[in-house]
Amino acid sequence: MKDKDSVIIELTVQNHAGVMSHITGLFSRRAFNLEGILCGRIGDGTRSRMYLLVNDDDRLEQIVKQLQKLYDVLEVSLKYDYDQSVFDRLSEWIGG
Amino acid sequence: MKVNGAEITIKLLERQGIEVISGIPGGANLPLYDALSKSSIRHVLARHEQGAGFIAQGIARTTGRAAVCFATSGPGLTNLLTAIADAKQDSIPMVAVTGQVSYGLVGTDAFQEVDTYGLTIPITKHNFLVRSPEELLQVVPEAFRIAEGGRPGPVVVDIPKDVQLGMVELEAWPEPAAAKEKSHVEICMADIEQTATLINEAKKPLLYIGGGIVHSNAYRALREFAGKNSIPVTSTLMGLGCLRGDDPLNLGMVGMHGTRYTNYLLNETDLLLAFGVRFDDRATGKVSGFCRNARIVHIDIDEAEINKIRKADISITGDIGAVLGKMLPLVKRDERKEWITQIESMKAAFPFFMPSGSGRHPIEIIKLIGSLAPEDAIITTDVGQHQMWVAQGYPFKLPRTLLTSGGLGTMGFGLPAAIGAAIANPDKRVICFSGDGSILMNIQELATLADLQLNVTVAVLNNGHLGLVRQQQEMFYDGHYIASEFVTNPDFAMISRGFGITAYDAGRGGNMEEVLRQALSHSGPAFVNIPIPPKENVIPIVPPGAANHDMVGGETYER
After folding, report:
1. What count of CB pairs under 8 Å joins A to B?
2. Which residues from chain A sit within 8 angstroms of residue B126, using beta carbons?
3. Strand B233-235 and strand B250-253: pairing?
4. How many other C-beta atoms are found inside a 10 Å radius of the C-beta of residue B47?
5. Best interface-test mutation with A: which of B135, B303, B309, B310 has the largest number of A CBs within 10 A?
6. pLDDT greater than 80 at residue B306
7. Is residue A43 within 8 angstroms of chain B, CB to CB?
């Protein structure tokens, strides 16, 4: 099940308290839209992987560039071919 | 050796080449001050943390190197926030070191606790909450690397008190951050060649330059580049001084209070060379109406600025000085007779109408001060009408001689920034232009100025109003004046004398030029109050939301 209007941004980030604030803060202060977040630590726990579900619109380029500027963000890539139903199942599970 | 976190911090600042720190001590940063007492670094005691932040900015803006300020936790940090946000908006390298309650108390609403980390995320390039004294060894040099590298900006290092006191066994100090790491972005030669070809083929190219040229120390390269191909240059507020005011290619400031002919020429150009600029709304006016007929080349060190406001036809991410150096040999020598002739006729048809006669118009006073001041004098401004009159009228000749709060537009910037500029440039005359509204926002720093006896002349253009607010109410709110006229206005000369600063009042009779001459040649700090007409407007003005060519006023000068 793929949603043509949205895209997933995959981030590799430093894993410490505060990284999430940097990322969500960026979305709110720049008035970017953010539909969903999945996050978990990877490897030895010094890093985390984050998946952000966002609208695939003309602001995407700016979102990616701003994310790349964040000091604790190590890698940014766009995933068009991901099955986004994981976000849907998650929201079912949450009860949304 | 055994050292504590505070000693590590001070030692690393010394090794970084820091000579002066401005700040205010308090409970949570006393260990840092204790370590500072044993250091070669000079401390400047400000009277408000915002003042300390702007003193650091005055140092950073004139030297191009990151400067340091100190504040304690809680109110110390909240007072500092404005100066940090200001540094972010204008890309000024600064490292703010703040005290925090002990790490075990973080999150308990302890005395003078505030969430420094959370508060400073949106207004810094990056911020650190240091959790152990060992971490400081990595964090302090990294803070300078971040503040000065790429597009500069402010960094906050928040250090809990117990981290300042925690002991560490050390064998060697880490290396300080390199002077200024060049942008690691590889500049694509094909883009440079393509841009050069576009320039060589363009009929009416126009340079639109800004703070990026200043930060890159690229003004000489810019002058050579513009001169070789005869490309006229228009500047944002942040780029003033990169070209001399009297350079024939200099079209002055663009945008909201730009000159008529300059704003009209934006519609004529077929190739806009946007170098070290970010298409700020005060410069572009309504974006869809900005340079409608031009192809856009955008060069900036921050990739996120490319296509942010205006889509570029060609873009290069990199240090503008490096790009100009590579592009210069590819651009042909050209006199551009036709384009220059058109510009000259535009200048003649829509000139900047200089007020003349009375000698009391603010622009006349600013020009008079400009003629009396040394060529390399450093000018700081506050924010409002006087700031725009300085931008329009002062004869700037070099970059880093205008320090002004361009992005955030902070009233209260001028006086402490002047103090910082004078600390870093003891051989130069520093002039702070202010207004009667702005000066009161950080007037306590006159005490700091008196402490230091620096060569700073404060010139307050006093109209008894929040002048730019009054002007907007007159022009865009049907003359509904509210809260823009002060009911009372203090005797500024007397206040200054109360701080121990020599003061002059140009309104108390006598010859204006003589008064200014005295105030500018006085050794040590001087203050001069200059009454100006209460209802003078800054013209022309682009109404908010309008395109630059729809500016109002300044067709002819009306008194």
Report:
1. 26
2. 71
3. parallel
4. 18
5. B303
6. yes
7. no
Distance between CA atoms of residues B133 and B137, nearest Å: 8
- The residue whose two tokens read 């971040």 is B146
pLDDT of residue B355: 75
Best B100, B106, B121 residue to mutate vs chain A (most A CBs within 10 Å): B121
Which pLDDT band, with edges at 50, 70 and 90, does B559 fall under? very low
Residue whose structure tokens are 């395109």 = B547
Interchain pair B304, A65: CB under 8 A? yes
| pLDDT over 90 (residue B256) | yes
Q: Cβ–Cβ of B146/A71 closer than 8 Å?
A: yes
CA dihedral B319, B320, B325, B329 (to 10 degrees): 130
Does residue A58 belong to the interface with chain B, where contact is any CB pair within 8 Å? no
Give the C-alpha separation, B363 to B443, whole Å. 24
CA dist., res. B77 & res. B46, Å (int):
14
List, as ranges, residues 173-192 from B with C-beta within 8 Å of A.
Answer: none
DSSP summary character for residue B498: H
Report CB contact under 8 Å: B302, A22. no
Q: How far apart are CA B452 and CA B58, in angstroms?
A: 15
Tell me the percentage of chain A whose pLDDT exceeds 90: 68
Residue B74, token pair as written in the block: 């809680």
Q: How far apart are CA B503 and CA B106, in angstroms?
A: 47
Tokens standing for residue B553: 């006023």
Q: Which of B427, B434, B435 is nearest to B455 (CA)?
A: B427
- What is the spatial distance between Cα B226 and Cα B89, in angstroms, rounded to a whole number? 27
Please work out, in degrees rounded to the nearest 5, the angle formed at the alpha carbon of residue B11 by the alpha carbons of B7 and B16.
150
B109 class by beta-carbon count within 10 Å (0-12 exposed, 13-18 middle, 19+ buried): exposed
**Separation between Cα atoms, residue B79 and residue B63, nearest integer Å:** 25
B67-122 pLDDT, tens per residue?
999 999 999 999 999 999 999 999 999 999 999 999 999 999 999 999 999 999 99
Average pLDDT for B180-203: 84
One-letter-per-residue 3-state SS of B124-177: CCEEEECCCHHHHHHHHHHHHHHHHCCCCCEEEEEEEHHHHHCEEECCCCCCCC
CA B307 – CA B323 distance, rounded (Å):
19
For chain B, the distance separating the N- and C-terminal CA atoms, rounded to the nearest angstrom, is 72
Q: Name the minimum distance, in Å, from the CA of B108 to any CA of chain A.
A: 17
Q: Would you call the peptide bond into B205 cis, given omega within 30 degrees of 0 as the criterion?
A: no
Tell whether A66 lies on the interface with B, counting CB pairs under 8 A: yes
pLDDT digits (tens, 9 = 90+) for B10-22: 999 999 999 999 9
Contact B96, B66 (CB under 8 A): no
Cross-strand pairs, B306 = none
3-state secondary structure at position B204: coil
- Which residues share a beta bridge with B160? B100
B interface mutation test: which of A22, A58, A65, A70 has the most B CBs within 10 A?
A65
| Min Cα separation B548/chain A (Å) | 25
